[in-house]
Design goal:
The complex is a heterodimer of chains A (296) and B (294).
Chain A (H helix, E strand, L loop, with lengths): L2 H8 L1 H28 L18 H8 L1 H33 L5 H8 L1 H4 L2 H11 L6 H7 L12 H29 L3 H9 L4 H29 L2 H5 L13 H10 L5 H26 L6
Chain B lengths: L10 H32 L10 E4 L3 E4 L5 H7 L2 E2 L2 E2 H32 L5 H9 L6 H15 L5 H25 L3 H9 L4 H12 L1 H16 L3 H6 L8 H7 L8 H31 L6
The chains are: A mainly alpha (296), B mainly alpha (294).
């Protein structure tokens, strides 16, 4: 057991390779995270930027007793589920179709990948323009059929579906690509053997395709959930969480509290911490699942 | 697939094929529709979207009298002291520095995680992946406070350092995977033949993993060229803005300059789109290589 020190010494160069990146990680991720936990127990806000003090669990009890909180939890859960499931389903369907015998695959694929290849920051603002009440292209389109303009972003009932649709649009190409990759890695001999045994069409799909790409489907669901839950751009750039808190999720709530004028850093930090607890388990599953920490 | 029922033509197959194409065409149109809209708006005179365009075929927006004025006004854009040239320079300096720093730091780390065994390796690897589970704001708030203390708010470094660190989780993971895929015998043979470890790394591993290095560069590029949330917090002086902040300033609560906005969107997006199309094949491999083995 005395060899621990020796092993550490022998590994000196290994640590040196990692050290620069590790310093960055320590100062900009791990330290901020610890600091975030710390300020969530203080009263740091616009009135106490420098002279803040520990106030125990006050921020958390404030959040949990705030009627907005349950709305935001609901919004966040609905936002994640309503985005991830259609995104994965559409991506899978497109990948399956493109993996079958269809003419013009290359051209279809080029068009279908556009939402992913365009910067999301820009396309979301484009969606905002398309939803414009007076001049947006959707209302102009409806006008042709005599439909009265819909207040997409100003009406609570429309704003949420509006941002979900925009975010699904952003998401399916990525899923399509990872599923295409998985489908192409299935050996064709398996299908040949199955058709000799008389299995065709849906039965091949059910018994060969789906079981073999199940790991990728799970990966898509996990990664999709983490990214959607965390997706600041999609939830902020179109509606900024409004109208009211109709489209506010954890991440936009924390951002608005901190940088929306009141500099309410402590409550924002508490919000972010609660969000992290929500995310930690899918995240842990992902890293476990991918076996990324294993050696080669 | 020879020998299966694939060869014969049946009514059922024809219907299936029509349905497939109908679905693919609808999805393809949906996929490019916002881009059609922005191209049309960029070439339509006026800023309001109210007039100057019409629907072709009932849904494709087309300008009545196309103009390139909006592109000229992007280049002449000024927001209290900041100019387009400033924002382009800021974006370029921040992005190029981020890409270089990210590659320089993730290559050795990925190498160590792939080729060396040392105490705490698994825990360290896991800690680099932790940030993927953080909501971005968890770190933005304390990062802002730290940089405010260090006096780095309103400086390039205030963005370059967080962007670089932000790229680690994915990049180190991609590089480890890339080095893992190169057989150990190759670089071990070189060291046995008397090459230093660094030479083996530089002359054997780096050339063999160039596609992954390109991927890492591209992720760092995308993360910094297009970031809004952090830049919005860190760069408060107009002359220090990056392009995304200038773009966002065209959409205000009271008025939106849609014409100029669309032209600027295209100027910012076209280079990304081209690079992306070239590299898309490599982008996913790093992310999914562990998952498709089943």
């Amino acid at each position: 057991m005395a060899s621990v020190l020796e092993r550490l010494k022998a590994s000196k160069t290994s640590y040196l390779y990692i050290l620069p990146a590790l310093i960055g990680l320590l100062f900009l991720v791990l330290y901020p995270f610890a600091y975030d936990i710390y300020i969530s127990f203080t009263n740091m806000n616009i009135g106490h930027i420098r002279d803040f003090s520990l106030i125990g669990l006050t921020n958390f009890s404030y959040i949990f007793s705030d009627p907005d909180f349950i709305v935001i939890v609901e919004n966040t859960v609905v936002w994640t589920v309503a985005n991830v499931i259609p995104t994965v389903a559409l991506g899978l369907l497109l990948a399956l179709i493109l993996n079958s015998k269809v003419r013009g695959k290359t051209i279809y694929r080029m068009f279908l990948i556009v939402p992913w290849a365009m910067p999301s920051f820009i396309t979301l603002l484009i969606w905002k323009g398309m939803y414009d009440l007076q001049y947006g292209v959707f209302n102009k389109f409806l006008e042709q059929f005599g439909v009265a303009p819909i207040n997409w972003l100003g009406d609570c009932h429309w704003a949420f579906p509006a941002i979900v649709i925009a975010n699904i649009w952003l998401g399916y190409p990525f899923m399509m690509i990872i599923f295409s990759g998985a489908l192409q890695s299935i050996p064709t001999e398996l299908y040949e053997a199955a058709s000799i045994d008389g299995a065709v069409g849906y039965r091949q799909m059910l018994h060969i395709t789906i079981p073999l790409i199940r790991p990728t489907i799970i990966l898509g669901l996990l990664l999709g959930s983490i990214w959607t839950f965390n997706n600041f751009n999609s939830a902020y750039l179109i509606t900024a969480g409004g109208p009211g808190i109709c489209t506010t999720i954890f991440i936009t709530q924390a951002y608005n509290l901190a940088f929306g004028g009141l500099l309410n850093f402590s409550v924002a930090a508490a919000y972010a911490l609660i969000a992290f607890v929500f995310l930690f388990f899918p995240g842990l599953l992902w890293t476990r699942y991918m076996g990324v920490t294993k050696s080669s | 697939m020879k020998g299966s029922s694939g060869g014969r033509w049946t009514v059922g197959k024809a219907i299936q094929s029509v349905l497939k194409h109908a679905f693919l065409i609808i999805m393809a149109v949906i996929s490019i529709y916002p881009v059609l809209w922005v191209v049309s708006t960029a070439f339509t005179p006026g800023e309001t979207l109210a007039t100057g365009w019409h629907f072709l075929l009932g849904f494709v927006p087309v300008p009545d009298h196309p103009t390139i004025d909006h592109f000229a006004s992007v280049l002449n854009l000024q927001v209290t002291g900041g100019t387009f040239a400033d924002w382009l320079r800021n974006s370029l300096v921040i992005t190029v520095s981020t890409v270089l720093a990210s590659v320089a730091l993730t290559l050795p780390a990925g190498y160590a995680f792939s080729r060396r065994v040392f105490p705490g390796r698994g825990a360290l690897m896991f800690s680099f992946l932790l940030p993927t589970m953080f909501p971005g704001v968890v770190t933005i708030i304390p990062q802002f406070l730290i940089f405010a203390t260090l006096g780095l708010v309103n400086s390039y470094l205030g963005c370059i350092i967080p962007y670089t660190v932000g790229s680690f989780a994915l990049s180190i993971f991609i590089m480890k995977g890339a080095f893992d895929s190169v057989p150990r015998d190759l670089d071990e043979a070189a060291t046995i033949d008397g090459a230093s470890e660094f030479r083996a790394f530089w002359q054997i591993l780096v050339p063999l993993t160039l596609p992954s290095i390109a991927t890492v560069s591209l992720w760092a590029f995308m993360g910094s060229w297009l970031d809004f949330a952090l830049a919005h917090v860190m760069l408060q002086s107009n002359s220090l803005w990056t392009l995304p902040l200038a773009l966002y300033s065209l959409i205000t609560p009271t008025y939106t300059y849609y014409g100029t906005f669309s032209a600027m969107s295209l100027i910012m997006a076209v280079p990304v789109f081209i690079v992306f199309m070239i590299f898309q094949k490599y982008l996913v491999t790093g992310l999914t290589s562990g998952s498709v083995k089943g």
